Amino acid sequence: MSEVRLHQLEATDERQYMLREGYEVYEKQGAPLGAIAFHYHSFYEIIYVLEGEYSSMLENQTYHMKKGDMLLIDCNVMHKYQFIEKKHDSSKRIILWVTREMLQSLSGEEMDLSACFRGQSSRAYHFPIYYEEMLRGYLLKLVMEELPDVPSPEAKQVLDRGYLTLFFVYLNMLCSRREYGFSRENTVFHPMVEQVADYIERHISEGISVEELARQVHMSKYYFLRKFKEQTGVTVHNFVLNKRLIQASEELLQGNNMTQVWQNAGFADYSSFLRNFKRTFGISPGKYRAWVLERM
To answer: Could you tell me the pLDDT band of residue 161, with boundaries at 50, 70 and 90?
Structure first.
């Protein structure tokens, strides 16, 4: 029997965007050299730990995961890999990226398959072994380049869509059970980041100074700047900017006019908004809205 080949993503690969429409699934080994600073994307992400350990920080919480654990990351949530020296060298995991549009197409009228990414206190889960093995089986089939006894790529594509549907149906049912969420022992909370993020979101349409943020967490300006960069991997300026861009991208899809979009997101003027949006997303706000809406 020929060796089963898996779609691989190298640990050195820093890519945080999708190359194909719908979904992508990869196996990734070792501690990632990219993704060590806060970033976000407009699609959902699931990380399932096949072997070893792995840690990830989602805004104000760090989850320390072991074999069999699963992490769910919503669209436009700031997150990063939490580096721990030599701890994750033997880590092996499956990465699933899936778009909102893909999950909408798989969902029926009775069930929203994207619901598992929202509304829970925990974003990481450890399921009973029976369910965990079932979910792992679906992921392993999805990550295979070819399925045994499946004669054509077209047949595999149809089967993969079925496996993806089954995976998310069961995942949603399991995530609704609060007892499967991570315990506090495996979660580290970052109150400083939480306070800063909450303040920014409440005042997103206003000018926000470093001095005001430092006062919110009762630190001197320069100590705050250093501690924030240590915890998040990004500067305070970039964190605020990314929060504004997330707000703007969501408002674009809600149909707000362009003036409302940049003003509600707190940009000083349209030219500043346009420059930063194009630098981050690679296209203009208008083209971004049209590109996303035509796929919905």
So the answer is: very high
Residue 247's pLDDT band, with cuts at 50, 70 and 90, is very high
Alpha helices in 42-128 (DSSP H): 100-106
- Exposure letters 219-255 (e unless 16+ CB within 10 A, then b): beeeebbeebeebbbbebeebbbbbbbbbbbbbbeee
Report, as an integer, the average pLDDT of 132-148. Answer: 90
Pair 13, 74: CB distance under 8 Å: no
Report the DSSP pairing between strands 92-98 and 23-29: antiparallel
The per-residue pLDDT for 86 is 77
Q: What is the distance between the alpha carbons of residues 171 and 114, in angstroms, rounded to a whole number?
A: 10
- Token output for 229: 């960069």
What is the pLDDT at residue 1? 40
Q: Are 148 and 201 in contact (CB under 8 A)?
A: no
Paired strand residues for 111: 108
What is the DSSP secondary-structure string of 138-195?
HHHHHHBSS-TT---HHHHHHHHHHHHHHHHHHHHHHHT-GGGBPPGGGEEE-HHHHH
The pairing of beta strand 61-66 with beta strand 53-58: antiparallel
pLDDT of res. 92: 93
Q: Are 61 and 121 contacting, i.e. CB atoms less than 8 angstroms apart?
A: no
Q: Round the CA-based radius of gyration of the chain to a whole number and report it.
A: 20
User: 3-class SS at 279?
Assistant: helix
